Amino acid sequence: MLEGNSWWSSDQNRRDVLKYSAAGGTALVAGCLGGSSSTDRFRVFDPQSSGTLPSERHCNPFNPSQRGTWHPGALIFDRPAIHSPAKDEVYPLVATDWEMTDDTTLEFTFSEDWTWHNGDQLVADDWVMQLQMALAILEYQAEDGERPHQFLESAEAPDERTARINLHDPLSETVAVQNAIADFVGDESRGVFTKHDDDQWSEWHSQVTEADDSEMETLLEELTTKSYPLLEDAVGNGPFQVADIGDNVMVFEKYEDHPNADNINFSEYSMHLYENNNPTQPYANDEVDAAHTQFPVEDDVKSQLPEGHTLIKESFSTNKLFSFNCGHDVSYDTPLSSANVRKAVCHVFDRDQVKQVLEGVNRMFDWPSCRVPGNVLDSGSHEAAEWIQDFTEYGQNDTERAAELLEREGFERDGGEWYTPDGDRFEIDVLGGTKRKEFGVLKDNLNEFGIATNQEEVDDATLSERRQNGEYDMMPDGSSANGVRAMWALDLVPGWLQQITHFDPEAEIPMPVGDPEGSSGTKTINVEEHIREWQITDDDQYHKELMWWWNQTVPQMETMYQPDAGAYNADNWELDAPDGIIDGTEDALYLIPKMDEATMEYTG
């Protein structure tokens, strides 16, 4: 998710303060930085408008603050290959080919056609330097006996055209490639940012890869805080290079020596900043030609949009969920530590009542909980849409089933009110969520069923602390849902989600899959190992059983999802690319000009 405005400070100089006209649009910067005409410039809304200032953005992928490695770094730097999380496909870019030379060795072949913007050849060593630095950082951060990276062991460049990745375990080729080109510790997946013969990168590389533990802390403090290079000084390798950096607009000009330059019929690409992160009005006013996110829009706004309004990135969405404290390895005593109790709460919930109060572009998640994006289930584009036909469906206000599950756990109902096995009134503490309509519906459903609720709002710091310590019963949550495999990343489910929902990583699931009564008994799985085996073997049975574990354990329950598309004005522009790029990547507006199998043309 995009950072907010936490990087703003009170002592910014006058040049760094964005200026706005009384009418609410941006005040144009003098000369070429203006955006009045798009005949030779593709104008894009900057999604970090209220965050990082252009003059402070840098292209150091290891420094998470004031970063420019995504916007606009993903435009001016190219990457070895492109992974589409929504389609689970990989497309070549700088690396024209790859192969598993043996079970644990993956080799990429780099094109000879790419150069840095100063004319130097882009070589495999440039990317390998970045990988080696990331792996060295992970090695320092790893606990004794743990792998620094779950799959990648090391990287080397035997020659200028070859990048060799050594793996801990055998992996399928697609999964190996996805892991090699993914983020490790920063934004590395968005480009090759390190130039192997650049003095600063060369010095940092040798220091980080050769330092002992006593030296690493100081080195990492420097590497992760330095703004090198600043965006205005960055030498990239993508289809556009830095031309001018203003207060509220960044302009990039076509790099004529890029291998795809002849397929680009416009000379400039600009990114425009506004006072908030919502592009709807500037887009409707023809101040920008496109935006990465915040679409579709509410019905009453649609009439304001350009006649040629066209969505991209339609496979992306965000989920809204109920999160439960599963109680594993925490001292807080929660009645929701039982999966049957969590399932009972989910059964009491009435989705139909939420449909009456839906706001904006939220859509109901009308399927069994399964940790698959709603867009995927809606389109039926993955086998998971078939697998879940027999899964337990919650949200039907099935109070009879809820009562049965509670009674199994020793809860009793007296005078219409439920009591815990210890004889206490069954009350659920909800942490936050007072503005979430579905939580209001759930509270009413629970109260009517005889379960008391107490809702408490706290500040962000307190919420984070209590969530991590497992000091709550339920809370709202939201997350991106941008791909079937991406939803099960090792650092996401057994990492982050386990830390906030506190589920037991060793779980028994009823078998066969689809039968909650377990007519064939149960199967014990380790969630992390199951995900790893899925990655190694690419066997969908692991995925199917993980979905069933999610459905029967319900550490979270999906309640709604919201499409998270981008848009462009097809009255003046034509974008053509494989579905996996135009609808399946976050960076579609940056990636299309880079690829020989995709085109972006001015047609107005």
UniProtKB/TrEMBL annotation:
Coiled coil: none
Keywords for the protein's UniProt record, in alphabetical order: Plasmid, Signal, Transport
Keyword Ubl conjugation on entry: no
UniProt-listed GO biological process terms: peptide transport
Source organism, top-level taxon: Archaea
Gene Ontology molecular-function annotations: peptide transmembrane transporter activity
Residue stretches making up the Solute-binding protein family domain: 89-491
Residues spanning the signal sequence: none
InterPro entries hit by this protein: SBP_5 (IPR039424), SBP_5_dom (IPR000914), TAT_signal_bac_arc (IPR019546)
Family to which this protein belongs: Belongs to the bacterial solute-binding protein 5 family.
Name of this protein: Twin-arginine translocation signal domain-containing protein
Species assigned in the record: Haloterrigena salifodinae
